[in-house]
Amino acid sequence: MLIPPQPDPEGAARVEMLGFSKRFGALQALDDVSLTVEAGSFHALLGENGAGKSTLVKSLIGFYRADTGSVMVDGRERDIGSPRDAAALGIGMIFQHFTVVPGMTVAENLALAGRDLAPVIHWRAERERLAAFKQTAPFPLDLDARVAGLAAGEKQKLEILKALYTRRRFLVLDEPTSVLTPLEADEVLGQMKALCQAQQLTVLIITHKFREVFGFCDEVTVLRKGRRTGATRTADSHRDQLAGWMMGVEPSETIAATAAPAAAAIPGTPRLAISGLQVAGHEGLLAIDGLALQVQPGEIVGVAGVSGNGQRELVAALTGALPMAGGSVSVDGQPYVPTRRSMTALQVRSLPEEPLHNACVGHLSVGENLALRNFDRAPLKQGWFLSASALKAQAQAGIAAFKVKTPGPATAIQNLSGGNVQRAVLARELGAVNDDPPRLLIVANPCFGLDFQATAEIHARLRAARDAGTGVLLVSEDLDELLALASRLVVLSHGHVALECPTANADISAIGRAMAGDLKEAA
Predict the structure, then answer these.
(1) Measured on CA atoms in the order 110, 147, 190, 35, is the torsion positive or negative?
(2) What is the pTM of this model?
(3) Cβ–Cβ contacts within 10 Å for residue 335, how many?
(4) Of 292, 241, 248, nearest to 270 (Cα)?
(5) For residue 155, what pLDDT is reported?
């Protein structure tokens, strides 16, 4: 007999998910998955995109009803038919995107999180409860601060505080550090770990960062194509084993996510030289103000920073999406303006963020998208017409060279997965389809939302371009990615360079302080 949720249990919860299966039409999203998270443990859930991670945890919290399977909480089978049932058992989830109300205060957001919120809040009693909670909260909080004025890291902490204030004892964290600086990420996960060790909380974290898995997690479970492929204590495992479980191959077959250090950049005229650059943001204020940086041939220069500090405007200005308000840019010593003619002449290519929306025409075919750089040149252009046979041959060559998984070159590119859209754009921008390799490559968040295999492939392509003499400007919000690929790092804060340093033996604390805007301490 299933036992309905009971109110307000205490202490860290032990949760077992037994035999979970879930089908959406023809897609078997989960296939007999079982997972046990011990009370007080910090447990990682890994898997490529589409592996079933989100379906599993949403089934746990009652967002979905699994076709088969049962949930045991503290050794007793429970019926969780809705998020409200999960909340009654102290089970909650921190989603990747914020659910706080910007126009309200911290206190109002905390009060609003209660599952039994009365039509009228009695603020004297609520304030007393909030004051008592504040004394034990893992993060400091100003109850009267307006949420709209909080930084991204503070909003993420508030999401966690909401769950703790409403007495959650088992928390699912979905990519909780994607908007945090390294120091903030370590602080948040460290505090969660401390609560687990004190047996006040159990955590199941969905992450793609192995640094977080091995730095904070006690155990790890891996899903692949809806099935559990492995589970182990992190102390008994290693990166290649987990990657192999994720991709369905032996550890020796996985694509290396790291590589030998790059050869020294080629001295001489920079591939890219920026001096005094100014770029206005969408509200008319300067998002980039007086920026100077250089990229040498055969070098990857990383640009780090918390989202909203000018990175997007920098890429937009260099690719022509935003005008430059001041300063100068040169490529190989030649003045550069981001027009199609200039980019073609100077062999400048780009891989923008969200390539399906920013680098492709979704309803056009894969072949047509691969031709956007050279449709007006031979061999594609034959007099006044576009050669269908040349277009098809070029597309087939690019698809083969970059292993783009598609039914064929005539398939609309919007029907491809994110990783395959990215592969197609790389095939075009790296010259695989037109024998025109770039001299400068401008890249923005190239692996956002992609799985481990696609990420490793794209990193390998960027290293290969670097080794061929291409200068690469890599803008990313993933510091681990920058440290793995770049030889130098530039940190942007409020449109200025807050720190510039080599990535070899980089001081992560200094980088984190610079990303947080503490210019004096980072210097």
Answers:
(1) positive
(2) 0.69
(3) 10
(4) 292
(5) 85
CA–CA gap between residue 327 and residue 324 (Å, rounded)? 7
Q: What CATH architecture does domain 255-347+438-523 belong to?
A: 3-Layer(aba) Sandwich (3.40)
Tokens of residue 29, six digits? 């999203």
At the fourth CATH level, which superfamily is domain 15-103+168-253?
P-loop containing nucleotide triphosphate hydrolases (3.40.50.300)
User: Do residues 353 and 318 make contact, with C-beta atoms less than 8 angstroms apart?
Assistant: no
| 24 CB-contact burial (10 Å; exposed 0-12 / middle 13-18 / buried 19+) | exposed
Distance CA 457, CA 460 (A): 5
When pLDDT is cut at 50, 70 and 90, the band that residue 257 belongs to is: very low
Pairwise CA distance, residues 302 & 491, whole Å: 8
Beta bridge partner(s), residue 473? 301, 442
Token pair for 171: 């928390």
**What are the angstrom distances between the C-alpha of 59 and each of 34, 53, 82, 398?**
12, 10, 9, 40
- Give CATH 3.40.50.300 domain extents, the chain: 15-103+168-253, 255-347+438-523
How many other CB atoms sit within 10 Å of the CB of residue 76? Answer: 11
Rounded Cα gap, residues 7 and 16, in angstroms: 19
Please state, rounded to an integer, the average pLDDT across all residues of the chain. 86
pLDDT of residue 247: 74
- Concatenating the DSSP letter of every residue in 168-183 gives -SEEEEESTTTTS-HH
Contacts of 243 (CB under 8 A, 6+ apart): 251, 254, 257, 452
The rounded Cα 479 to chain-centroid distance in angstroms is 10
How many angstroms separate the Cα of 503 from the Cα of each of 47, 262, 300, 389, 446? 28, 11, 11, 46, 19
CA geometry: angle 207, 510, 464, nearest 5 deg? 60
Reading the block at residue 431, the tokens are: 């010259």
DSSP calls for 469-510: T-EEEEE-S-HHHHHHH-SEEEEEETTEEEEEEESTT--HHH
